[in-house]
Structure formats: C-alpha cells, structure tokens
Amino acid sequence: MRFPSTLGSVDKKKAEALVGRAVESGINYFDTAWMYPGNEDALGQALENLKLRDRVYLATKLPIALIKKREDFDRFFDEELKRLRTDHVDYYLLHMLTDTASWRRLSALGIEEWIRIKKESGAVRQIGFSFHGNRDAFLKLLDVYNWEFCQIQYNYSDENFQAGVSGLKAAAARGMPVIIMEPLLGGRLAGALPPAARGIFAGAKMYGPDGSARRATPAAWGLRWVFNHSEATVALSGMNTIAQIEENAAVADEAALSLSPEELAVYGKVRDVFNAAYKIRCTGCGYCLPCPRGVNIPGCFSACNISYVMGRVVGWQQYMTSAAFTSRKHGGPSLCVACGRCEQRCPQKLPVVQSLRDVRRRMEPFWFRLIIAGVRRFLGHPLQSAVLTENAS
C-alpha cells in the first residue's frame, strides 16, 4: 500500500528493491488490493522480475464497494490476476466488509457460489475478509460464512477500536488466522507520536533474547506489542525503505518473546499520554451498543479523540472507517435521535448524546459532508438526509 512513489505513481524500481530485500529478510506474505493505485501491478512485476512468486504468499482483495452485479466478481478478479502476473491468489479477501447487511447483498449476487468455483479451480487458495466496522458487527460476520482467515486493525493505541481485542480473541478461538493491519497506525506510532510519548519510549529499555536491555525505536515497540499476542498470525507493515525492512524483520525475529511486566508498563505510560489529551473519556467497553439507529458510538469517540492526540487528518481517516461511511449504511453520529438508551447503559455515565453532537461538530465540517455524499453517490449507496443536514436535536 505504501510503496515509494514519484509524482503520484509507484516507483517500480524502488518497489522491486524493497520486495527483494524483504524476501531476503524472511518476509513471505505480501498484501495488496485493487484499491491501492498502481500497487498490484508494481508488486506483480517485482515478483515476476525477481522470480519470487513461488516463494511468497500473495494476498489481494475484491473491492466489494464497487460490485454492482455478479459479473463484476470475475471482472475485478481477472484483472487482478493480470496485474499480479499470476494464476492464483493465496489469500483473497473481501475488502472492507463492514456488516452482515453487506454480506447479504453479496450473497444475493452469488458470492458464495463464486467463491466455491474459484477455490475448486485453485485460483483462490484461502478466503477471508478485511474489516472496518464495530465490534458487534465483526462478531456477527464471523458466523455468516466458513471463513479461513480475517484481517483487522489492531495496535497498542486503542485495543477496543473496530474489532478490537475481543474480536481478535473470538476469531482465534474459531481457529482462524488473524492478519493484523495498521500495527503502527500507518506509521504514525513510529514517527508522529506526541513528544511526551516519544520521550517515554526513548527512556525505556527493551529486552533481547539473551536478557540484555537496549533502547528501541517507537516502531519496534509498536510491533513487539502486536507480536506479544499469540492470536495475531501476521503483522502487516507498510515499509517503504530498506532500513524499515531490516528493523522490522529484526523485531519479528524476536516475536516469540513475551513482554516483561516492565515493558508492558511502558505502554501503559504511553497510553496515559494519549488519554490525557482525550476529550471524551470513553473506555471503548461497548456497553452502549447496539445502538438502535446503528451509530458506532465507541468508534466515533475513538476517532474524535485521536484527532486531538495525533491531528485532524489522522482522526478523519479513522473516522471514515469507524463510522463506515463507505458502506451501504453508515454509523455516524448524524443518525442519533437522542433516545438515551446509550446513556442508561454507559458504566462511565458519559453524556453520550451531547458527546455525539460534539463529535459531529468537530469531525464533520461542511466540506467533509459534501465529500462523503459524493463518495456514497459514486458507490451507489442510498443517501441518508442526515449526512448533509444538521441534526435538529
């Protein structure tokens, strides 16, 4: 997803060098998608030129938001095989499956029969989905089909965001490999931490296989936290320099190590820095869910808090996925009708309804609502009037 680019296009020469060094370092799982401009083609060309296709597992994704009819399944898949210069995909994902309603739409178009045919032919070896939604939706999706793996966002900055720790454990309990995306939150947990958080990591010690203590970068701390979870099968990292590959591979070599109490305490201090900047004191427990109107309350609160800690751009990116604005039915705060059920359930006794209004004021400026409306029209999703109008309550 994050190959180096020049003037908006993937730099294929640099990408090829990265792929080659990654494989030399022992990395054997490559994740791409139709929705990453130029990425499938660059990866396919690199694997072909370096003759590495048979040494790696290749994962790409069906852009389900663009699927309008059954014929689209083959239209996108065949083009992906062409771009990747291969006759099969080892791990194929339904991209950004957010809820059971999205699955039912695909089922009505014949996705289950299509998957069966592709698996029988060997064109798809394993089938799964990548997830951007709330925890309850994820738990329901686990049971709608006999999935062979799944992909979720997970990092130390918020264990309860989207599928969260409970989703991770639920999938693993079903015997499903769990692929972790955003272990460093798109690199932000490596290079865009608040100064106080960077200072905590800089002053802390990480222990090696021989028990020796050393200083480590924020990136190393972030990956070690993910690797400390036995339920996490693979961590995806969008590396775009040789140095990043070498550092991340070295951290992965120590993945079997369990974090010590002293190391875990370091993450607690960093979270305290994050929490001190949070405007909404939501713990992400999920007791407020399900919302009768479908609002992803913890997800909206988390994205808004992140906008204060790490900036509005990061917050908006989180907000887009946590509120599922690209799905057929979004889960943004504009859907709230102030019924108050969430406040009755909230163990923190938060003013949830007022906080949702505050989130909307911060996270949905007029231009943002226009963009969302345009995206939803392009995807063919029915517009809800609340997307463009202020909540009267």
Keywords:
12% strand; seven-stranded parallel β-sheet; 11 strands; 17 helices; alpha/beta; TIM Barrel; globular
Describe the structure.
The chain is of the alpha/beta class and 393 residues long. The protein has two domains: 5-266, NADP-dependent oxidoreductase domain (TIM Barrel), CATH 3.20.20.100; 280-387, no CATH class. The chain is built from 17 helices and eleven strands. The strands form three sheets. A seven-stranded parallel sheet has the order 3-4-5-6-7-8-11. A two-stranded antiparallel sheet has the order 1-2. The two termini are 41 Å apart.
Q: Give the mean pLDDT.
A: 89
Strand content: 5-15%
Give helix and strand order, one letter per element, not per position: EEHEHEHEHHEHEHEHHEEHEHHHHHHH
Give the helix level as a range of percent.
Answer: 40-55%
Number of helices: 17
What is the 3D shape? globular
**What is the fold named in CATH at topology level of the largest domain?**
TIM Barrel
Span from first to last CA? 41 Å
CATH superfamily of the largest domain: NADP-dependent oxidoreductase domain
Largest sheet: 7 strands, parallel
CATH architecture of the largest domain: Alpha-Beta Barrel
At the first level of CATH, the class of the largest domain is Alpha Beta
Radius of gyration, in Å, reads: 21 Å
Decide which structural class fits the backbone.
alpha/beta
Number of domains: 2
Poorly predicted runs of 5 or more residues: 385-393
- The total count of strands amounts to 11
